[in-house]
Specification:
Number of helices: 10
Order of helices and strands: EEEHEEEHHHEHEHEEHEEEHEHH
CATH class of the largest domain: Alpha Beta
Strand order of the largest sheet: 6-7-8-3-9-10
Radius of gyration: 24 Å
CATH topology of the largest domain: Rossmann fold
Strand content: 25-35%
CATH superfamily of the largest domain: P-loop containing nucleotide triphosphate hydrolases
Distance between the termini: 39 Å
Oligomer: single chain
Helix content: 25-40%
Number of strands: 14
Largest sheet: 6 strands, mixed
Length: 313
């Protein structure tokens, strides 16, 4: 079953079209990266899913059912613009938000205690939100988003305000939530996080979806059959099978050579050709990063220009 299916969702603000017939499919129990530059339409789509605003056209299904009011209770939403009550104490605030999501006071108290222990912040119960740093407040908001164990969790720039240690802690909790059965929509500009966390991605630009699929499949789509080999000893490969892209001395007699193989030549075949010609120390295929793909497609360079760029970096 898919956790969410959006079909041809369109949203118009006066003369600005925020979403132009956007369709995405989010498999259940995955981490789905919703990517795009500022103003692309990501937040508009997230707000429609959360029923904060409505669309002019299109439809959304949640776990096989048309989106409706009851689904608010199975969604956890961490907005980019934080929404805690500054004068309230942390414990009171979490209790209030948990009960809004339908938890009894007893269940809410038990779950809040578990999460405060996970983050090692049990002594924050009586702290006022206004006395917390940005990162501390972000932890509290994250807890408020997930403590009712939602089936669908939407995180909009969840790492904003965190130092590397706390960013790693949040990463661990996100993976834990996935293991426990939640589906996570993850909106971010941090491509290194997309590389490490996301199973599937969609790229929205200028109100349109321009790319979607499993992350591995997307990266494979843009690979250029380029390989990097570190070796000792010069070699010459047949020109009709390989193109030399670049070469430099790493240290002593160790040389790094980047070469492009003809389409259809696999990595194992390249290695077999090389070991008869030189002393191979390391070998790897050069794959595009999500940052490479994101930047090039948002710039409108197109597939061929992107592949050319990947050969040069």
């Amino acid at each position: 079953m898919n956790a969410l299916e959006a079909r041809n969702v369109t949203k118009q603000y006066a003369t600005h079209k925020a979403l132009d017939s956007v369709s995405i499919t989010i498999p259940e129990k995955t981490i789905y990266g919703l990517l795009g530059p500022n103003g692309a339409g990501k937040t508009t789509l997230i707000r429609i899913i959360n029923q904060i605003i409505t669309s002019e056209a299109g439809s959304i299904e949640i776990f096989g059912e048309p989106l409706q009011e009851k689904h608010v209770g199975i969604i956890g939403y961490l907005p980019e613009e934080r929404g805690l009550y500054k004068k309230m104490k942390v414990g009171d605030q979490l209790m209030y938000l948990a009960q809004l999501k339908g938890l009894s006071r007893k269940d809410a108290l038990a779950r809040i205690k578990v999460w405060l222990e996970k983050f090692e912040i049990k002594d924050w119960w009586n702290k006022k939100v206004e006395d917390l740093s940005k990162g501390m407040a972000q932890k509290v908001q994250f807890i408020s988003t997930v403590m009712h164990e939602p089936r669908l969790i939407i995180l909009d720039e969840p790492f904003s305000g965190f130092d590397p240690v706390n960013a790693q802690l949040i990463t661990e909790k996100i993976l834990e939530l996935k293991e426990n059965g939640s589906t996570i929509i993850f909106s971010t500009h941090r491509m290194e996080t997309v590389e490490s966390l996301c199973d599937h991605i969609a790229l929205i630009n200028k109100s349109k979806k321009i790319l979607e699929g499993p992350k591995k499949q997307v990266k494979a789509q843009y690979k250029t059959n380029t390989f990097v080999v570190e070796h000792k000893g010069a070699f010459t490969l047949p020109n009709h099978r390989y193109e030399l892209v670049g070469q430099n001395v790493v240290e002593d007699n160790l040389i790094s050579t980047t070469l492009k193989a003809q389409d259809g030549i696999k990595g194992n075949e390249v290695i077999r050709d090389l070991i008869d010609l030189t002393e191979v120390h390391s070998f790897q295929e050069k794959l595009p990063t999500m940052a490479d793909i994101f930047i090039s497609l948002v710039k409108g360079e197109g597939d061929e220009a992107l592949k050319k760029h990947l050969l040069e970096v």
